[in-house]
Amino acid sequence: NHDEVRKVFKESVGQICQIVRLSPKQTPQSCTPKPENIVVANTHLFYHPMADHIRILQAYAVCHKLDEIRREGQCPDPVLICGDFNSGPLSGAVRLLTNRSVLPSENDCWKHLNVYRWECGDSDYMIDHGYIGNYSSPGEETEPCYIDEEFANAHSDEASIDDSSVSNESAKNESSNETIDTISPPAIELPSSFPILASGCLKVPQFTNYAVDFVETLDYVFASKPSEREPFGFQPKGEAPMLTEDMVKKYVAMPNEAMPSDHVAVVCDFEWMKNG
User: How far is residue 43's CA from residue 266's CA, in Å, rounded to a whole number?
Assistant: First the structure.
């Protein structure tokens, strides 16, 4: 019943998710039982720093569609979900995938529910509120520019969104007689039929995105675990070595002449598992 969420989620933001069903190669000499099929999904969630509530709805929609597809046969298929979630490790979307539910009181992903508008994605708004660009020195009255900044641990800055800008935006809207919905956020819970997911990375990467003005872990690989309801699943075994801060700082940021993307590839090893 939230008009702006409906506008953004259903009308403005394109939901991107590629889903494929694969059949593992069965070999006579293999002693590990394998499922007939696995379902693999790759997605890219919405980007805006104030739209964590949109991303949790997108993550829910992806899981709901995956569950529908994987249960088309007699036995539910195990799943792999990966992609750029544009969400930090403590975000609502990641919590939903790892904890299966997010209550309004458990996460601050709803903090901008009644403030965020589609127009907040305009370049002028993003610059004015400090989401992109920076000045070469404090108070300098010039156009924003990008400069090399001292590396900060992304996981220590989960509250990086400036609350004051949110308050200012609310005051601006109220003063202009705009109506702001004050609908309370809902509880989001995955269907009971959806499997339990485990991260492919045994240790959360220090970062997977390294730009001049932004450093964070945004990319993930999740796999379903076997259970009483799920005869087959995966056991995470480890991840490939990740880039370090020193490797990236040598080139200032990503992308660069040695790293063609601003995101780090996340490569994980899994082992087949069968319940019982």
Answer: 14
